[in-house]
Amino acid sequence: RFKDTKVASSLCKFLENEINCQNIDFNTISDYIISTRCFDYISHTFRPIARILGLDEKLVPVLIISNVGGYPIGIRMLGGYVKRKELTEKQAGIIASYCFCSGPAFTIGTIGVCVYNNNRIGAAVYASIIIANLLTAMIINRLFGINKIKLESQAVSESIESKIISSVETASKALFSMCSVIIAFSVVIVAVNELLVFMNISEKSIIGIIIRSIVDVTNIVNINGKNFVILPVVTFVISLGGLCVWAQCIKLNNKRIDLLRCFLLRIVVSVLSAVIFYTLFSEICKDFVSANVRNPHIIVNIDNFVPSFCLIIMIFLFFLKKRLAFKKKV
Fold first, then answer.
1. How far apart are the C-alpha atoms of 253 and 202, rounded to whole Å?
2. Using only C-alpha atoms, what is the Rg of the chain?
3. Which of 141, 172, 222, 242 could form a disulfide with 54 if both were Cys (CB 3.0 to 4.6 A apart)?
4. DSSP states of 153-165 as a string?
């Protein structure tokens, strides 16, 4: 818990930059894992977890990384399996519904520390989403026959160095697509704000913030950190991801995964996340929020436009430098 608002605000800015760096890190790692199938050699260590979840042991790393790395990671990784025809579009869409999470940096760091001034509140929200994902996996894997899928190990012919370079390039292209969507939604949010004014709804009201958060989930940071009642709704919104996140998923998907099925299942999982939070963590977090009332409220304003624009410039320079290096060799 932070009593110094300057320290907390600085931490929020650091977390914002950390989330942006995390995107390219996890995109690179996930692409490398899919292309090299490096986890296939130790997949037997995931066998106990796989049996409980009703999931092939080679897909357990996808579940773990997607629930830590951020929203689009799971869909990108599963798209690789569909591309190699190891999974069908329908199967990947079902699995993607629980391989979907904001990651701890945003939920615990930004929501917990910066909004509610207590990292345990963010941890409770994050835990609710993870529990909902795992329960969903246990149920729908058996309901839709995902537990019968058996993936074969595949040999990789390319060198490790070439795979790392290829993974960085692919991750950069994916991040470029994500940033372009984020910049486009910065314009959409302005239009939504004008619509709220027309409807006589204050953009700082709970309804206004929820509407803006459904469009872009990062707007949930504008919620009043002294309001406990809204926490299950906050859990639902973060679990669902918002239209901006789903637009990024569509951009990265390349029609490989049945995203409509995934989205409909995700709504159910998000409701379950809110119910789990209310059932398991409401009383605990109520005391944390009550203590927070005595502390100053930290105003958080995440600026997605500037970091996204800077990342696009960085990616452009990266590929430009690579092209110049190639011309010198030729």
1. 35
2. 20
3. 141
4. P----S-HHHHHH
Contact between residue 142 and residue 148 where contact means Cβ atoms under 8 Å apart: no
Tell me if 270 sits within 8 A of 125, measured CB to CB: no
CA distance 146 to 144: 6
List, for residues 169-201, the tens digit of each pLDDT value.
666 676 777 777 888 888 888 899 889 888 888
List strand residue ranges (DSSP E) for 82-135, in order. none
pTM for the whole structure: 0.78
Neighbours of 293 (CB within 10 A): 11
Distance between CA atoms of 318 and 313, rounded to whole angstroms? 9
Q: Is 182 helix (H, G, I), strand (E, B) or coil?
A: helix
Q: How far apart are CA 208 and CA 212, in angstroms?
A: 6
Residue 13 neighbours by CB under 8 Å, 6+ apart: none
Q: Which of 154, 134, 151, 149 is nearest to 49 (CA)?
A: 134
